[in-house]
Amino acid sequence: MLEDPLENVLNVVAHCLPMEQAVAVWDSALNKNLIDYPRLQRLPFNGVASQVLANVSRFADSGLESFVRLRLAWLKLRIVPQAWVLGHRVDYLIGDRLILLIDGSQHEGKQRRLDNAHDFELRQRGYEIIRVGYVEVMFDWPAVQLKIMQAIGLGMHLKKR
């Protein structure tokens, strides 16, 4: 059986896929503990692969989260991925109290009811929530970005005095 080492596959991915997709693949490898960041840092990546390495995070729980992280980097605000808030992980905490949640296909039925209960608890405690889904992130990003920018423009990310 012929098998290429993961490091070689990641290098090829970096050179063959657009940046967002390459970062999502690398993030997934880190998240699944198929490789660790110190090992990646020691490898002689160059060109676009070194750019991908500079953008990876082991905290991305899905490819959607990788895309969103890269798309929000320009904001220059404190953005905490996979933050713990009131005993639950949220996809992103922007500033002090704006929460961005990204729903995948698993957010239906019982999961949706649990999500709604947690959203209610977050709102009671003064957090603002933006919840978006796969289709919005992948096919209508400008509308998602506009929601986030409007919320920030209204100061919804800032701690209330």
In short:
The protein is an alpha+beta fold and 161 residues long.
How does the SSE layout of this entry go?
Blueprint: H1 6-16, H2 19-31, H3 37-42, H4 48-54, H5 63-72, E1 79-85, E2 88-94, E3 98-103, H6 110-124, E4 128-133, H7 134-139, H8 141-153
Helix pairs in contact: 1-2, 2-4, 2-5
Structure in words:
It is a single chain. This protein has 161 residues and is of the alpha+beta class. It has 2 domains: 6-54, no CATH class; 63-153, Endonuclease, Chain A, CATH 3.40.960. 50% of the residues lie in helices and 16% in strands. It is built from 8 helices and 4 strands, in the order αααααβββαβαα. The chain has helices at residues 6-16, 19-31, 37-42, 48-54, 63-72, 110-124, 134-139, 141-153, and strands at 79-85, 88-94, 98-103, 128-133. The chain has a 4-stranded mixed beta sheet, sandwiched between helices. Helix 1 (6-16) packs antiparallel against helix 2 (19-31) and helix 2 (19-31) crosses helix 4 (48-54). The longest helix has 15 residues, at 110-124. The termini are far apart. The mean pLDDT is 92.
